Amino acid sequence: MILKDSKLPKPVKLCILTAVLVLTYLIIAIPFKVMSVIPGFTDIRPVMLLKPVFGIFFGIPGCFAFAIGNLIGDILSDSLRWSSIAGFAANFLGPFLFYWFWKRIAKEPFALRTGKSLLKQLTVILASGLMEAIIITPAVKLIYTDVDVIVLASTILINGTVFPLFLGIPLIILMQEELHFEPFMTEQY
To answer: What is the CATH number of the domain that holds 75?
Structure first.
């Protein structure tokens, strides 16, 4: 990676990486902001496919990029609400759960080459989607009582699981096997 070989100080490299990841997030997220389920609160979010990618390959900078990208997306789409604070937290913790699991909990190096590792990844995907719904839904309901919490929670859970499962896993396999990305690559800076 270009940044890895540069002579820039590590904090500068990580800031540049975070900015590039935020831009990547926005390029994928913004076009879909028009596919609103509950206007101003939730929409169809294919960008969620990046959640495990950002956590596994880019670690903490990827987690921040995911949360910042979501916040900027809220601002650009006129969806910024008080509940965006919970959205920021959930969108940081979503990728962080992948980082934390594969870095600290899993007893094997990250690679989606076996059924066992795919099952672990599926478990983290489900836990991450559920955690996001548990964080965001009460925050929205507390402030905006007229929002249908069943639709909101279901949409958050579906976005947080379907896209990482059906698009995120193939992207991760492609990045690792064909493009030779290393898990937690930011730690090599």
So the answer is: 1.10.1760.20
The kind and range of the H/E element at 148 are none
What residues form DSSP beta bridges with 43? Answer: 36
| Widest pairwise Cα distance in the chain | 53
CB 165 within 8 A of CB 125: yes
Domain assignment present for 83: yes
> How far apart are alpha carbons 25 and 3 in whole angstroms?
19
What integer pLDDT is reported at residue 2 of this predicted model? 66
Q: Find residue 36's DSSP bridge partners.
A: 43
Give which of 28, 34, 170, 144 is closest to 87, Cα–Cα. Answer: 144
Coil vs helix vs strand at 124: helix
In order along the chain (189 residues), what is the average pLDDT of each group of 10 residues? 77 94 97 85 93 97 98 93 96 98 90 94 98 97 94 97 97 95 76
Label residue 178 exposed, middle or buried (CB < 10 Å: 0-12, 13-18, 19+): exposed
* Dihedral angle sign, alpha carbons of residues 82, 156, 135, 69: negative
- Contact yes or no for 90/50 (Cβ under 8 A): no
Indicate the number of domains in the chain: 1
Predicted local distance difference test score (pLDDT) of residue 155: 97
Per the structure block, which two tokens stand in for 121?
A: 């990844």
Q: Which residue type, as a one-letter code, is found at position 152?
A: L
